[in-house]
Amino acid sequence: MQKCSNPAFQSSTVLGRALVEWYLNFENYVCLLYPAKRFLPKIWRQENHGYYERLAPNQESFSILEPQVQLEKLWAEYNTILGKYLDLHASLARLPTIPQPEKSSYAKSLLKRWKTLYTRFDNFRTFFERLEIFQPDRDRALLPSVHPDCCPPAPFVPYFAKYPPAGILRQVVLGVQIHFRLIMFAPLRPYDVRMENSRVDETGWLAYELCRTFAGLEESLAYNSDELIPTYAALTMAGFGCRRMDIRLWLWRKLAHYEELSVLGYHPMKERLAVFWGMPQLLSMKFEAWKSNPPEQERVVLSEEFEKAIEDGKTSLESDAGSPEYLEGEIEADEEEDDF
């Protein structure tokens, strides 16, 4: 893309913007899983967002846009904010390798960036939640379960946005906020005086709303389930904040559906859940095997060493649980393809 185009030209057409946004979704996912700075220069995100800023530079002009265009502008703004988030995430990965006293100074500067960025992200969600397209559709009649033979009814009232595709952005943003509060904050916790002696991660409400949003999307998009695929990664983040047993039972079955769609794409998140829940058997078994009776998950309080624990945990979990048999054939096939 960088060889054949430039940021301004790419963002000047509908197809060009769609290609940029498709790539950014992939880059966001990879950089969140494996802390790394974004690969595409930030000007690409800025130009994509800039197109919509020129289209609707103020609230009045934004309010008269079609719902689809409003949502496109919000996605462009989300990608701009998330770009800074990815850079901060990559910077945090360096923290354990820095010696004292430089480490404390570096951590405090990152904590300041974290607070500024979290405030901006939270303000962004607060803004779009007030828009008409995100208002709950309270007149919508509840339909029978999309998966009545394998999934229990949702133990809550699903969230239906008046403009259904808006629910996807809400779902993704809630997932990122859990990542923000729990995963990203872990290495900075010792350097925040207010949180130094606290074990509260405040992700319960976010996880609850995330599950409600997914339930609404699953029903709204029942006849076009491909549109649900981008939301499953965000749904996984509910596993880091879900407390109620009835919701965990519902969530476990949804994760089983995701695993059926993308075993290889889901494995990195299973590694993190296995460490976080203290469940080595999670790597060698499918969620399908536990759908009717999910085990209790003992959550750990994340700290500075969480990412190191992920790496150490992967080694110990794999030695305890064995190699995931259902992955071996697919991995070998991929390796053979890489030779050509």
Describe this structure in words.
- The chain has 340 residues and is mostly helical.
- The chain has 2 domains: 1-93, no CATH class; 120-338, no CATH class.
- Helix content is 60%, strand content 0%.
- It contains 13 helices and no strands.
- The radius of gyration is 21 Å and the shape is globular.
- The model is unreliable at 301-307 and 309-340 (pLDDT under 50).
Give keywords.
mainly alpha; disordered C terminus; 340 residues; 13 helices
Largest sheet: none
List how many beta strands DSSP finds.
Answer: 0
Total DSSP helices: 13
- Quote the beta fraction: under 5%
Question: Segments where pLDDT lies below 50 for 5+ residues?
Answer: 301-307, 309-340
Class inferred from helices and paired strands: mainly alpha
What is Rg? 21 Å
The helix content is 55-70%
What string, H for helix and E for strand, traces the elements in order? HHHHHHHHHHHHH
Task: Choose one word for the global shape.
Answer: globular
| Overall mean confidence score, pLDDT | 77
- Alpha-carbon distance between the termini? 23 Å
Count of domain modules: 2
Quick overview:
With 340 residues, the protein is an all-alpha fold. The chain has helices at residues 7-10, 14-33, 42-55, 59-63, 67-93, 102-129, 166-184, 204-220, 229-236, 245-261, 263-277, 306-321, 325-338.
